[in-house]
Amino acid sequence: MKLEPQSVSTLTKEIKEILENQFLFVFVKGEVSNFKQHSSGHIYLTLKDANASINCIVWKNTLKLPPISNGDVVSVQGRLTLYASSGSYQLIISQIEKYGIGDFYKEFLKTKQALLEKGYFDDSRKQPLPEYPTVIGVVTSETGAVLQDIIVTVKRRYPLVTLLVRPTIVQGSAAEKDIVQAINDFQKIETKPDVLIIARGGGSIEDLWCFNSESVATAMFNCPIPIISAIGHETDTTIADLVADKRANTPTAAAELATPNTVTSISDMLYFYEERIREKIDEKVVTISKILENSISSSLLSLLKSNCATVELTLQSKEQQLRNSLQKKVVERENRLVNIESTLKASDPTMPFHRGFAIIKSTIGIIEKDMQLREGETIAIERLHFTETAVITKTTQNEKNK
Predict the structure, then answer these.
(1) pTM here?
(2) Domain segments of the chain as ranges
(3) CATH code for 8-101?
């Protein structure tokens, strides 16, 4: 007799019956992780030890919980159940007792205290972010939404900047070493970034654990390039976040911190560079004056002083040339942005609709210029905000366009 395969539902149902009948009561001890109270009132958490973890649920109004949080060691009583749609099992908690804090959290606190004593978190050693970066470095995974969010935000706000991405492992046993290497790699390249973004999407405490390591913290602390961290969700705080020069709640927010808004900052940027030019010219004048006073005779100095007016005019001319050159570059950049905007508008498929055009479709599709329509045929006229239906009552050949 030929053996017929079971359906996934049938197999899962059998497993569920065996599991729930076999484990009607369990008593287990572990460390709390990923503690979350849902808006529904239910509480979700993970119990773990060094080698395993299990998802747990406390239904609302089931019991009054003692004050617990991630890192606490607890013992729980409850029963196992299986959630068929995901094929995963969980522990439904009916009683819970708190013991203290667990090994993972103890390690976190120990590392945090050691780095605090070394001054890793001091505001006084945090570096300011550049106002107008020319190069931004990104340390993150090359797959997923995090990198795309950063790229889209940077190009939208400040398309003049160069974005350098160092694909990095951000989860698992190899992540810690690779993150450190990525930070060091950016310090060795010829065109060094003006600012670094270290980013990772949300995940469990275990997923983010590599960002709590002392080696990653040390690499960030010793990095001469300002660093923005965007790790996990807003409620997740890693040691890397505490060491970073700036912390952002999301990768998009990190990209916004790293860039000025081109549209609103163009005049500020012009003023900034004008002031820099003035400072450099003043510095050169003071330096040359000191050299002259210390190295030439008084008679020659008098002669030179008599020509100061000429020198000053020359300097003013050079300053004006620099201003004009800078203004020209700014105008070029503005024109480039206008051209990009025009190109985007020209490629907008809805633009013909805005000019009053419509698309006419028959039952076989869009009607092109040489297609013949028959009297009585139904057509659809698509415009910007609505579609109308019409029936051909008469067709006449246009003599002008024969």
Answers:
(1) 0.53
(2) 8-101, 108-258, 262-346, 354-401
(3) 2.40.50.140
